[in-house]
Amino acid sequence: MAEYDLLPKLVGHLDRHLIFPLVEFAANQVPEDDDAKNLEFTRVKYELLKTTNMTDFIGSLKAELDGLDEAPAEFNDKRQKVLSRLEQFEDETSKITDLLGREEVVNNLRSDKVANLEFLKKEHDVTIENVNALYDFGNFQYSCGNYAAASELLYQFRVLSTDNDKVAAATWGKLASEILTTNWKEAVEELQKVKESIDGKLFNNPLAQLNNRTWLIHWALFPLFNDDSTRDQLLDLFFSPPFINTIQTSCPWILRYLAASVITGRGRTRSTGQYQKQLKDIVRIVKQEAYEYTDPVTDFVRALYIDFDFEEAQRQLSLAEEILKSDFFLISTAEAFVDAARHLISESYCKIHARIDIKDLSARLGLGQDEGEKWIVNLIRDTRVDAKIDYKEGTVVMNHPPSSVYQQVIERTKGAFFRTQVLSAAVAR
Amino acid sequence: MSRFFTGGDSSSESSSDEEELYSSEEEGQDQAQKDDSDEDESEEEEDESESESSDEEGGRSGAARFLRGEDSESEDSDEDRVKTVKSAKDKRFQELESIIKAIENGQKINDWGSISNEFDKLNRHASKVGESGKPPKIYIRALVELEDFMNETISKQKVTPKKMNATNARGLNAVKQKIKKVTKDYQTQVDAFKADEDEFMKSEDEAPAPKVRKPKATDTYTEAAADADEEGFSTIGKGGKTLQFTPESIFKHLRGIMESRGKKNTDRLEQIKIMEKLYSVAVTPYQQIRVLLTLVSARFDLSAGGTATSMPLEQWKAAEQDISNLFEVLNKNQDHIVFEGAEEWEDDEKPPTLQDGEKYIKVPGSIVSYIERLDDELTRSLQSIDPHTSEYIERLTDEGSLYNVIFRGQLYYEHLRKDSSLETPQDSVNRIVMRRLEHVYYKPAQVVKILEENAWKTAPAGFESTITPQADVADATNLLNVLCNYLFINSEGIIRARAMLCQIYFLALHDEYYRARDMMLMSHLQETINSFDVLTQILYNRTLVQVGLCAFRKGLVYDAQNTLQEICGSGRQKELLAQGVMIQRFAQVSPEQERLEKQRQLPFHMHINLELLECVYLTCSMLLEIPLLAQTGSSPDVKKRVISKTYRRMLEYHERQIFTGPPENTRDHVMQASRALAAGEWKKSINFVHSIKIWDLMPDTEGIKTMLSKQIQEEGLRTYLFTYAPFYDTLAVTTLSSMFELEDRKVAAIVSKMISHEELAAALDQVTSTVIFRKGVELSRLQSLALTLSDKAAQLIETNERTLEQRTQGTANAFDRRGQNQRGGARGGGQRGGRGGARGGGGQRQAGGTQFTGGALGAAVRG
């Protein structure tokens, strides 16, 4: 299983603070009694957070590492320093945060940043240094692990600052903060902002675009698997050409998450059309990238949709289940994934076969015979497959009505009228 | 100034001589004559024996030939002493004699046509033999005799009213003009000969011993110039001054040569000879560099006249040697640099000295241009040599030395770049790195390795390259990487594109299909290739083909076919790959175009085997087309889906034949294999394909054959199912598997795939493991026509929308119903398939990532 562990690959594209939950998760997977391993994870955590300002936590980690009862003295010093800096920052920014807290000031702000700054300068004597202090303070708060405060500060900074680079950095910072405070709605909004800034500002620098998109894709995994309401939006983002290209070029391992989330999303998506399209896309991409990246999840897709090897698909499915259970992002969807995958197997199996032995099918789905029968009954009911169970023989008989030619002609010409109308409207304009 | 003096201090002596010469011409002339006779006497004996032996040889035949060994041995001992004598000299003399004989024969029967021809030949040979600047005596004699005879004929012609026939008259005229020219060149000798025939013939023939060579050569030129003056024209030197070769006068000579450069009637060979002499007397590095620079460019000028002719071999070698010498000199004298932007030093009397605060003495010149020129000349000469001769292979060995020169050049430029004050243009470095890359990219790794090792041997010890450190580039792949990356970072435009293509080519050649393909797609070259120059387009085509072949070796038939389609489907592979000129039936080609096209041709050793290419392409097409043909069967839209027109045409032609004999060439083999496959006889098909001999050219022939057998088995099964499905109700999987010798599971998988893609109206019965074919799926003619009509209507709407979209320049987003294209951007491919792909009925085959929509082809040919 270790060969499929994506942690080392993911780490390179995430922020320190975002890595921490992943490491924490990995550490929890280790059995309690394996001291050496546990210690190693503690060391990893310590190294990871060493440079941040979360002194208390680092101190306790250090203590654990060295087997001390309490944190070494140096951390106390550090803590004092951090606190004093914190106060200093608060002093610096108190004025502007005050101002922004006052309603009459906020009401006077317009969408034009330059004018805003001008206004504040004139009326309230705010300098550009004050604004930048907000940024620094936000950064500092983030480093301390005070994500909510950081998010707020960075928001305020972004309203006022005209420095494009810093605004971009602040947007990234805010995104991280929102993710860490599990504020998914906001996070997705920030994601869109970052995406726009990548598309717009880095237009002339394809390499930077690629790198930034790679980062963004990795960060987006957090909301993708934690919030159902924004999932469609995020999947659309992932499937948009620039992003799918980024995945193919620089981080094919994301395919696991993409495939898993598409498959899991089976019952959830609004329209089956969209689901079919996504599935088609993922099959195509998995096929294309097979030379670069494979794991049980992509292998499952490949076995089922490219090689039509149902036995292999079943084998990969059980492997994939294990993978999912040891993955930080996918653990919560493991059940749903297996369920959806079974549906997919039986769907395409029924499509191809005219008569199926129930026993055999149950084995393919990894279920017992009775369970399998129940499953099939459910399947027939849910998907309205034209099938009957022959109890005596222990088989399911499928009835595939050939698609009528007339139906086909109707299908093909259905949209024509509407499209022509749109066309003529456009010409008339 | 005679050779006897030179034992002492030659420089002081000669300089005093020079003064004398300047002061009075007469004196110089006298002296010259005296010199001549001196020389003659001293070498009389030696030459006598020599000319005798050569005379003898000319007349000898039959058994006497065996005696030659002895003779030539004695000659060899002579040659040891005489540096300029070539081992092939005897032979040449013999040839000369035979030609002279032929001329004499012509004279006897008054056949001026043949005399003219022979005379041309004679001149050519004479210039070869007389490399040291001295034409052979017999040549001079023949010349004089011919001239006499000619004059005689002309005078006769005037008296007799009888007219000569046209050929003769033309020949006579030609000879007349040529003789005039040639005698002018060899005026001295001719005069000497006229003065005293016997004496002249006895006189020295060979260049004297090397020790005394320089001053002697000086003599000859002194007199040449003097004589020339008398005649009232001057090829070298200015206004009646005679030429003298001393270190001090070098610059003067160079200036003279430079000024006459490009003018009509300049004898370049002569100048080169002068400069060779100059180089040998040059003492200071500055002089050496100057002489070498001028010398090299003069050598290149030799071939500049007619673009079609290539540089003579010996001149090329000499030029290569000179450039190497130049590097030696520059390496030894680090304070001298050759630099494009340097200023011309005007003062001939004083060589530039190192000024305070300046690190270098800068000499104007462009080494990179010389190297490029040297490279081009080699290519040109390779183009003109018949590739199936040993001459070609001999010539090809020079590539090694050329590569060394390029390598040295690169080191030199790196050295210059180290000093930022020089501001060496990045462009020069790029150019030289590019040249190096172009000598490497099409070679297998082992060959590159040897090339590299040799190059490092020639480099002075302790030299390390910053661009390509020795340790890093030991492996050919690394070398390619390093070179290409350097160019990616430091260059732009065409060089960058070329570097990219070279790297892709190399990767494809070494079976790195996916990397090659990804790079190809990410380069986006297929969109812009039309705007590049023809050579780059050719490189693009070559790369494309190589990627296709690589895909085939990997067993990716579909990708291979798709990639090769554009080149091979056009039927103009030869032109597109610059591996031969096609005779165009309809278009008139102007001579100018033809010449350009000839120039573009690649030398043979870079060719991609066209027969192999065709074989691969046809085999791939077969594997894709035969099942497709079986599938479409008799439905009305057969015409719509054609993968390869070329293949279809061939197949049709083959099927029209009433009698088909056993296959002879590759094409026959593939065609018969196709027919066998279409009939379900996959074993026969495999036999046909396997008996194609050209597979042996592929690395891992066995692997390829196994891959092909497997593919044929599978496609055979598909074809069989398509063809015979209407005649079956059920079909057991086991029957199929035994029929096609495939595993049950594999058969089931293939059938499942076909069912799932709705290619086959059937279903599997798991219990009895049979395929059940559905009834009543065949469409009536009316129904299928209705389907076609609906398709057409859909297409019409599509086209309308696209037209409007184009007109409104993208503002009509209303039509983009499916959001954006599936796959644009960095992977190129999907752009086209994006719209049509979603509708199942359209029948568009979407290529996924591997659709190169280059279209680079037409332009590559048209130029």
Report the count of strand segments of chain B: 5
- Rounded average pLDDT of chain A: 81
**How is the biggest beta sheet of chain A arranged?**
3 strands, antiparallel
Number of distinct helices of chain A: 23
Number of distinct helices of chain B: 36
Tertiary shape of chain B: elongated
Compute the gyration radius of chain A: what is it?
27 Å
Strand tally of chain A is: 3
Report the structural category of chain B: mainly alpha
Beta fraction of the residues of chain B?
under 5%
Q: What's the helical proportion of residues of chain A? A: over 70%
Distance between the termini of chain B: 60 Å
Structure in words:
The complex is a heterodimer of chains A (429) and B (863). Chain A has 429 residues and is mainly alpha-helical. In chain A, 74% of the residues lie in helices and 3% in strands. A three-stranded antiparallel β-sheet of chain A has the order 1-3-2. In chain A, a hairpin with a 4-residue loop joins strand 2 and strand 3. The radius of gyration of chain A is 27 Å and the shape is flat. Chain B is mainly α and 863 residues long. Among the domains of chain B are: 223 residues, no CATH class; 198 residues, Alpha Horseshoe (Serine Threonine Protein Phosphatase 5, Tetratricopeptide repeat), CATH 1.25.40; 118 residues, no CATH class. A three-stranded antiparallel β-sheet of chain B has the order 3-5-4. Chain B has a two-stranded parallel sheet with strand order 1-2. In chain B, helix 4 packs parallel to helix 6, helix 15 packs antiparallel against helix 16 and helix 15 packs parallel to helix 17. The longest helix of chain B has 35 residues. At the A-B interface, helix 14, helix 16, helix 19, strand 1 and helix 22 of A face helix 21, helix 33, strand 4 and helix 34 of B.
